[in-house]
Design a protein that fits this description.
Rna Polymerase Sigma Factor, Chain: A, 2 domains, 10 helices
Length: 192
């Protein structure tokens, strides 16, 4: 019975859950420790991320990215400098702020109107055709490899998240994030 109480306490994120010890286990490569940390903190972290980012999809991305960073950087946690919970929420806050900064750096206002965002069922190819043939955005999009162009258009025309795109293309989430990031960088360079 005592073990069950501890497990449910961890799942509910109660004060009895030892974040510092869990981070130490993560530093040793223990993926089950990361899962326990996720069970204990993910809901609250998602709430914090939603308050910062104001959009569910971005908040989910911030939480996911934070857990990846937490696992990779767990060895950097120093309990002498603060609590484990404070450390993981600092990572989340920094990730959310980086996402906010990233959203503002890409602006396709000139060709935004021809996208026709009200047509949710429109294919990426149809959206590309609807862009002005002489538009810079269309010319830059056509320079991208077909799968990456389609991913960008599905994200911006149909509003698909990184996770939805990864599922549709059958690639890992990290790969899809890289595709989107690199494609946006290519578009920015082309449009500059």
């Amino acid at each position: 019975m005592e073990q069950r109480t501890h497990e449910s306490g961890a799942a509910a994120g109660e004060a009895g859950f030892d974040v510092a010890a869990t981070l130490a286990a993560c530093a040793g490569g223990d993926r089950t420790a990361l899962h326990r940390l996720y069970e204990a903190e993910a809901d609250r972290m998602l709430g914090v991320a939603r308050r910062i980012l104001k959009r569910d999809a971005l908040a989910e991305e911030a939480v996911h990215d934070s857990f990846v960073l937490i696992f990779r950087q767990a060895a950097r946690f120093d309990p002498a400098r603060g609590s484990g919970r404070t450390w993981i929420y600092a990572i989340l806050r920094n990730r959310a702020l980086n996402i906010l900064r990233g959203e503002k750096r890409t602006d396709f206002v000139d060709d935004y109107e021809p996208f026709g965002l009200e047509a949710e069922d429109e294919s990426p190819e149809a959206a590309l055709v609807r862009l002005s043939e002489s538009g810079r955005l269309r010319a830059c999009l056509e320079r991208l490899e077909a799968p990456r162009r389609t991913a960008i258009l599905l994200a911006y025309v149909n509003g698909l998240t990184h996770g939805e795109l990864a599922g549709r293309f059958g690639v890992p989430l990290g790969t899809m994030k890289s595709w989107i990031r690199r494609s946006l960088l290519s578009l920015r360079e082309c449009l500059a």
